[in-house]
Amino acid sequence: MNETLSRFLEALRHADLRISTAELLDAYRTVDAVGISSRQLLKDALALSVAKSADEQERFDEAFEKFFAHIDVDLPSLADQDSSDGAGDDAPENGGEPGEGNPAGGSALEEFAETGQELNLLAAMSQAAREVGLDRMWLFTQKNLFTRRILDEMGLAAMERRMRALDDAAADGDDGAGDDLARLAAARARAFEMTREYVEREFDLFASDNAEKLREERLRDIRLQSIDSRDQERVRRILRRIAKRLIALYSRKRSQPMRGVLDVRKTLRRNYPNDGHLFELHWRRKRVKEPDVMIICDVSRSVAALSRFLLYFVYSLNEIIPKLRSFMLCSDLVESTDLFDSLGLDEAIEAALKRVMLGSTDYGQALDDFDSIAVSDISRRTSVIILGDARSNDTNPRIDLMQKIHDRAKFVMWLNPEPRTFWGTGDSEMYRYLPYVHFARPTSSVRDLERAATALLATAMR
Amino acid sequence: MRADDDSFYFHYFANFWKSNDMGDASANYADRAQKLENVERITGGFAGFGYISSPRISTAVFLAQQLEKPILVEGPAGVGKTELAKTAAAYLGLPLIRMQCYEGLDESKALYEWKYAKQLLYTQILKEHLHALTGGATNLNDALARLEDLDDIFFSEQFLEPRPLLGALREPRGCVLLIDEIDKADEEFEAFLLEILSDYQVSVPELGTIKAMVSPLVFLTSNNTREMSDALKRRCLHLHIPFPDRTLETEIVAERVPEVPERLRQQLVDFVQGLRGLDLRKQPSVAETIDWARTLLLMHTDELGPDIVRNTLNVLLKFEEDIEVAEKEVAQLVRTARDPSSVLRYV
To answer: How far apart are CA B6 and CA B13, in angstroms?
Structure first.
């Protein structure tokens, strides 16, 4: 059972369950306690000790059914199969035997053709799979290759030689040979089918997540403006995951102690039972204030896609940034906070993008609008994020207003979708705004967004 | 005050065990192990106390005994999380020690506290004696030495106010410890629980480490108002109790309110199951189904009708807006509950 159980736990890891060494040991102890006499009991017991949430529970059930699919109810047969595996481990020369393709018969395939015992073939198959290193299968394109290798390992070549011989004999008029040939062909077809299924299942359990992981890894670095529409959902999923992690990281700290500042009231109250003798001191704590964030998104054609993701991301952080105001910028600037308050995230983003007048971008005008709508609300706790390319079509960039924002706010962050070498070229006013910005960075990928959010939270939560 | 003095530690436990026979404890534990020896027996035993258990729930209790691990029970309110612990206590014949968690719960309320007032009072009363004891002392060091000889009388058993957790560890026969609504407690408290949950022991600075003689059967319940930390989850078996399916719920109602005639029972369970399909702020739970069954019984109902349902809907649903949503569907749901085959006609 040990071998099977560790393979199952490996499969669970691929199903995105957190299986650490501790869970591994728990699983072994669980199986020790409940035995393997009842499938349902085993499933329930393992689920209780390794699946740690309702969501993980579902994935566990799915993986369990897939993994133990070929073992219907009679789990004892699993034990039998394992004991034969165990024997194979003790005497490796036995394990190699089927691979030899002994022409006198005795290879797993020949035996299967003789007896038709599918269970034995399955046992031989898992043995062969180990020999050819099926666990090195990584991508779905390798499925056929490994199917073939396993069949070879089980003596396919010898079997086919024999079939050719029989074919010749049948051509010479041997009737018995024709029957034998038909029997062998049927066995080969069935064995092929079973091996194929086996490899398919193994791929599902152990490797199907690899391609997805590779793609996600690649998506983190890709430029978000030029992303395929079919990848959008994936990017959002990544952003949601990052948001969840940041929330977990920053939601804990609600207050921090101020060393050496005595909280007189609390100290007195604490010490009433001591007859007013001050045994226990209580220090004052400073509440960590909720950050107050304003976000200005350029939604002109060149930046719109990125703005969409940024809005999505920042609003996913809602739990730790409850006070968030958003503004859309193009030829002028409008506030869109109300949309996000009343609509769902996706609809709100669409509605916000529609609300703004699309024309040639004018940062000076936009800052002027911002000045009249919101600048008076900027306090020492406010962080302002601006996402835009700072290309103002040669209008007055109103640096004075930028300075005003900078002077009032706690933190000003400018995310520019263009690489640094493009800043200041043509109509880009980036270098003129730069002195009034605390943090400026070229931002175009998921990774950049994450970095920006971390910088924001590290400052804003202080 | 000597923090971890072995002799004192022994003294402390000797006092504590004096009245208890050690043989008794192990006999009790054997009894408990026997009662929890397999899943079927647990299911049967719980049924005897009116708790209809699913295989997964029984398996969880079985594993908790075998692996000596706490069970973290999650699920919507009213599916019988707390009831599970109560039933386990009743079945095993062990005391149930319950600790309700809330924001701001800390060690002094959960573990132990010194009885400050009593300590002060006693020092006042015993002033004379203390004086007499130190009376012959010639200098301060001498007096101090004499006081030292007294042992830590003011930090001994009689001035210790045990709170639920310490009580659970000190229960000579073992006990069922229910830590209710752990998600309401602060994260600091959750971290503090880790030592108790993994080793069944706590460290008290004045007394040393106190280890449970018989490890208690621990249930933690959570309504999922916040995510538990991984460290806590890792130490527990994770049991999720969802709303029961039709058959199980019918059994539960039959067990809890046996006076309800079978036809009505079937109908009311069908109705509640239908209600859970609606988009409600708070879904009716098993507890509410049972309450409703009792209500219908009091009103001498023997068949579900739209009027009686509308009049008693507030037993099932706890929000005005939910009642509004449900009222529109009552006629349809009652029709389905009275005649399940009619569903086919509408589908």
So the answer is: 11
Q: Which of A300, A314, A297 is nearest to A236 (CA)?
A: A314
Mean pLDDT of chain A: 81
Question: What number of CA atoms fall less than 13 Å from residue B277's CA on the CB side?
Answer: 12
Percent of chain A with pLDDT over 70: 89
Q: What backbone torsions phi and psi does residue B78 show, to the nearest 5 degrees? A: 85, 20
Q: Is B279 left (phi over 0), alpha (psi -120 to 50) or beta?
A: beta
- pLDDT, tens digit, 9 for 90 and up, residues A114-167: 888 888 888 888 888 888 888 788 788 888 888 888 888 888 888 888 888 888
DSSP tally for chain A: helices H, then strands E: 21, 8
| Strand ranges in B160-317 using DSSP code E only, listed in sequence order | 160-162, 176-180, 201-204, 208-211, 217-222, 237-240
Query: Mean of the per-residue pLDDT values for chain B?
Result: 82
- Tokens 């993986």 found at: A63
Contacts of A52 in chain B (CB under 8 A): 230, 233-234, 238
Residues A70 and A78: beta-carbon distance below 8 Å: no
Cβ–Cβ under 8 Å, residues A244 and A263: no
pTM check: above 0.80: no
For residues B288 and B316, the answer to whether their CB atoms sit within 8 Å is yes
DSSP B189: H
Distance from CA of B65 to the nearest CA of A (A): 10
Determine contact, residues A255/A346, Cβ cutoff 8 Å: no
ipTM: 0.77
| φ, ψ (nearest 5 deg) of residue B64 | -60, -40
Tell me which chain A residues have a C-beta less than 8 angstroms from the C-beta of B116: 273-274
Q: Does the pLDDT at position A173 exceed 80?
A: no
Flag whether residue A256 sits within 8 Å of chain B, measured between CB atoms. no
Q: Is B219 on the interface with A (CB under 8 A)?
A: no
Among candidates B339, B247, B343, B253, which has minimal Cα distance to B292?
A: B253
Which contiguous run of DSSP H or E holds residue A143? helix A143-153
Query: What percent of chain B shows pLDDT beyond 70?
Result: 90
Residue with tokens 């700072």: A390
Q: Chain A, 259-288: which have a CB under 8 Å from a chain B CB?
A: 273-275
Chain B: give the shortest CA distance to residue A21, in Å.
11
* Whole-Å CA distances, A413 to A109, A387, A418, B102, B146: 68, 8, 15, 40, 69
Q: Does B281 touch chain A (CB under 8 A)?
A: no
Q: Concatenated DSSP letters for B59-70?
A: HHHHHHHHHT--
Contact list in A for residue B240 (CB cut-off 8 A) is 53-54, 57
d(CA B83, CA B72): 14
At residue B200's C-alpha, the angle toward residues B198 and B202, to 5°, is 105
- For chain A, the distance separating the N- and C-terminal CA atoms, rounded to the nearest angstrom, is 53
Report the pLDDT value the prediction gives residue A77, as an integer from 0 to 100: 42
Q: Which residues of B50-68 are buried (b: 16+ CB within 10 A; e: fewer)?
A: ebbbbbbbbbbbbbbbbbe
Query: Which residues, given as ranges, of chain B have pLDDT below 70?
Result: 1-25, 150-152, 340-347
CB atoms within 10 A of CB A315: 17
Sequence-distant (≥ 6) Cβ neighbours of residue A275 within 8 angstroms: B120
Tens digit of each residue's pLDDT (9 = 90 or more) over A410-451 = 889 999 988 899 888 888 889 999 999 998 989 888 888 888
Say yes or no for a CB contact (<8 Å) between B234 and A41: no
A167 vs A173: CA distance, rounded Å: 10
Structure tokens at A31: 């199986």
C-alpha dist (Å) from residue B244 to A337, B78, B249, B273 = 42, 11, 6, 9
